[in-house]
Amino acid sequence: GDDKTYYFDDIVAYKAERCYADFEGPGLVFQGLDGVLTAPVDNPGANSINSSTKCAKYEKSNTHAYSLILADNGAPLDLSVYNQFKIKVYATAPTQLLFKLEGTGGGFEKIKNIAVTGVWQEYTFDFSAQAANTGLSKVILFFDPGVETSGDTYYFDDVCAVPNPCPGAVANPEMLDDFECNRTAVYAGDWSYLSV
After folding, report:
1. What is residue 27's predicted lDDT score, i.e. its pLDDT?
2. CA torsion sign, 127 to 133 to 139 to 140?
3. DSSP state, 130?
4. Parallel, antiparallel, or unpaired: how do β-strands 95-103 and 138-143 relate?
5. Are 80 and 132 spatial neighbours (Cβ–Cβ below 8 Å)?
6. Mean pLDDT, to the nearest integer, of 102-122?
7. What contacts 63, CB < 8 A, 6 or more positions away?
8. Higher pLDDT pick, 189 / 50
């Protein structure tokens, strides 16, 4: 030790994320195209993943294969650091979610299986390959993409972006899940079911 005196002031900790929509305050305005979007609505089942009181509710059109939800940021999304998009989903039926970023810089999409129903889960979509793309301004969501006759209801919340936890990591196609940077597995219920 030493005999010096140190003064500290205004120490602030913050979560490294940018939330574009939480349906409890200002944020992106989503439109339901070919389906019915209602927001905000009451959270259908708060849990440790999503304890907020409000969220969005989407009833998919059962006459369109690609019924979509669209939000335009009005300016390019800054993906230089915040390029991992997270979304919380409460599904009433097993499905897939296609998450797309689009704009003058092109269109880029990722898809996740949603096996867990009746409870909130959080899903992450990696757009780090677009970190230098300054022409993406729209967020587009497709529940049950490519399935024309499904008309299920989905709730979603907390559309946020966080930094890439594994910058420069190379994906290993033979690795299902190392619980670090290779996360291609989706677990359902009690972890007894695995889908890739």
Report:
1. 93
2. negative
3. G
4. antiparallel
5. yes
6. 96
7. 34, 148
8. 50
